[in-house]
Amino acid sequence: MTRLGESVARATTLLSTDLSSDATVQELLKETGARRSLDLTDLPAKEQAELIAARTVEVLPGVEKLAERIEERRAAGKGLHIKLGIDPTATDVHLGHAVPLIILSRFQRLGHDVTLIIGDFTAKIGDPSGRTAERPPLTDEDIAQNLATYREQVRPFFDFEKVSFRQNSEWLAPYTFPELLSLLAQVPASQLLQREDFRNRLAAGSGLTMTELLYPIAQGLDSVALECDVELGGSDQLLNLQMGRKLMELRGQRPQLVVTMPLIEGTDGTGAKMSKSKGNYVGLSAPADDVFGKIMSVPDRLMEPYLKAWTEWTDEEITLVLGRVADRSLHPMDLKKVLAGEVVAALYGMDAAMAARAGFVAQFSKKSFSDVESLPSVDVAAHGAETVAAVLTTVLEFTPSASAARRLAKQNALRLVVEAEDEGKQQTVVLAEADAARPLGEVLAEKLADSPGVAYLKAGRKLGRLEGR
Length: 469
What we know:
This protein is 47% helix and 12% strand. By secondary structure, the chain is α/β, with parallel strands linked by helices. The protein is globular and about 80 Å long. The N and C termini lie far apart (65 Å). A hairpin with a 6-residue loop joins strand 8 and strand 9. It has 21 helices and eleven strands. Helix 14 runs parallel beside helix 16 (332-348).
């Protein structure tokens, strides 16, 4: 039995028992968390390919071709050469960004070599990739700052010491105009216009710049420069990844295999991709308690894709626990606590994971909010003139923006709660989206005028006390 097989056998036993038990969960997290550094080189080529494919949207030209390439490289005493391009476009990194790095880490542990291409050249072009407008180009200073932040935040999921770093300005900056024209003469314009977001923008009468059209060419030239075996990318990058295969063929090289990764749905359950602008994300630099609580707030249906994206669990293990949820031998809340523990343990360690678990249970099993220790508070006299959204964003820091606060209200997740001091009974008032844009004091005067007791502002699962109303 392989090392992974032995781990799965041990974890399966734990997954079949009481997952509401702290002791069981701690033992399980230790077992599955250890896989993030588990040597997987003993797996046969076919199992390696299947292990990668299980977490992808697509492997082109096929999983069997990936297995063949692994076997071929292994026979030559080498591993595959894998590449992932990174355009350092933002300083805020969330769990959605970690997904391809988790797969790259798996490739590393399977015995393969990884190169990260820093898109310092392409970041200055701008690739919309599903956006409705051209992405603003970045300066060299922007790129350097964003890259440093990106590496630091993703580090818990990926060993940056075992990769090669290249900047694509090395080969793109000296590329001459005659060379580019010669290359473009061999690429049909219709192929460049196949991207759905391009077609949608043109149909809507929006502009499309030549730099955007050339972005897939630039990314494809990265593949030519490095002659890698495999390139990873999001499913929205499929055209760019396929362009790499085409350009490699034009240069007489063996085309790379393409592995596309899922775009992770946000925590609000609306179907939108995880992003900071929508407020439906889990930030990698957020405190452990916030990470745990945010994952606990997601819809039950997201458990399967999230377990696949952020853990080292096998399909068989995931099927086992989802089956237990279906037959009601496992409560969905207990499964969420395990998933939240997995993520916090990866980011901050086992002690932090178990402490966050205990803190969550303590807070949300209380019969009275007054029993909850260390709640953040708002002085209504000082902040009553500010809008509810502003209080949530700048005072309590519960939401990243006013628009995110309004979205919470739209989802009926923004509430006022009044608790009678002597009886602990609660009255809840659901705030409408329009209420989020009104002054806090005005909303309290209207909604809670006849409701004595201690008042709280609740945003999703986050809770703040309203003092002096």
